[in-house]
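Hi all, a correction to my earlier message: I attached the wrong file for Acyl dehydratase. Here's the right sequence:
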Amino acid sequence: MTDIVQRGLYYDELEIGDRYVHRPGRTATEADNVMFSSLTMNTQALHLDAAFSASQPFGQRLMNSMWTLATMVGASVSQLTQGTLVAQLGLSDISFPAPLFHGDTLYTETEILAKRLSASRDGQGIVTMRHTGRNQDGTVVALATRVALMWCRDAAEEAR
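and the right structure:
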């Protein structure tokens, strides 16, 4: 019998230009929005107050954009970084070009933009990736560039 361990991809397995489509998607709920906004002390009325939001340009409550960002990055973990990430180094170029609402489903894809071996950490490499979140209609609702420090396969196996 063979043990099969679910993991992300090592630095060595990632190629510039590859695009990973993460499934399943995640349908955003009112409970997600209220809980996330409350847990993070974000009392923005656009997330919590239905009457106020109805009078605003989108006519309804918006999903908390930080929920959208966190869920988009989280959707990539099992396929890309589960057990192969050393550290997240940064997020940049974050934008939300269209709103996400309760009942919308967030689908995420990740493109590998750049990679290089670390100059200061043997057996590890720095990977730059772009996460794109789309709703069920294919409209882009979130973008983020992420830089991560990843294990190289041989070094990770040695470290174990």
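Sorry for the mix-up. The first strand starts at residue 19 and ends at 27.
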